[in-house]
Amino acid sequence: MGIRTIRKAFGGDARLTPQRPILKFKTNAPAEPDINLIPFIDVLLVIVIFLMLTTTWSKFNEMSLSLPTANAAQANGTPQTWVVSVNAQGLYAINGAKIEGRTAQDIGQALSNMNKLDATLLIKADASASHQAVVNVLEAARMQGLSKIAFATQNAASSNAVKP
């Protein structure tokens, strides 16, 4: 076998060798991720416009106040505090002394010797006390002309009561 025979066998003569299709494979380079900034900018503009509108409108609802000043001295003594306790059964006690009766007149009679100008009425009502029992204390305070009334509460974190 000579070189001529080998040349004919490997494509020297087109009629003797079948033609093979030439396949060109594309080299797929990994696509770089694009960040499309146009929708991002649109969303940011909408947020900026929203914030501008809400802050502008909130200024129209404000009132400019000039609060008065005072140079008064503090009171000589501490103000007297009267504590009215109401338990779950609707029984009353003023500064620890139980009151006979459950009406606003009975409570008002017990509060009658209170100094009405300086005293503060503190209402300590049980959480399960009836609404009417607390209203009776408020009515008695109104009848006695008391204006400094406060309600005693406790923080939810320090409460030992079971929440529903």
Question: How would you describe this structure to a colleague?
Answer:
This protein is 34% helix and 12% strand. It has 164 residues and is α/β, with parallel strands linked by helices. It is elongated. It has a domain of 50 residues. A five-stranded mixed beta sheet has the order 3-2-1-4-5, with helices on one face. α3 packs across α4. β4, α4 and β5 form a beta-alpha-beta unit.
Record field, number of beta strands: 5
Strand content: 5-15%
What is the overall number of helices? Answer: 4
Low-pLDDT stretches are none
> From N to C, what is the helix and strand string?
HHEEEHEHE
What shape does the CA trace take?
A: elongated
Structural class by helix and strand composition: alpha/beta
Mean pLDDT: 74
> What is the C-alpha radius of gyration, as a whole number of Å?
45 Å
Question: Portion of residues in helices?
Answer: 25-40%
Distance between the termini: 103 Å
Largest sheet: 5 strands, mixed
Strand order of the largest sheet: 3-2-1-4-5
Relevant terms:
164 residues; alpha/beta; elongated
Topology (elements, then pairings):
Blueprint: H1 3-12, H2 37-60, E1 81-86, E2 92-94, E3 97-98, H3 104-110, E4 120-125, H4 131-144, E5 149-151
Parallel strand pairs: 1-4, 4-5
Antiparallel strand pairs: 1-2, 2-3
Helix pairs in contact: 3-4
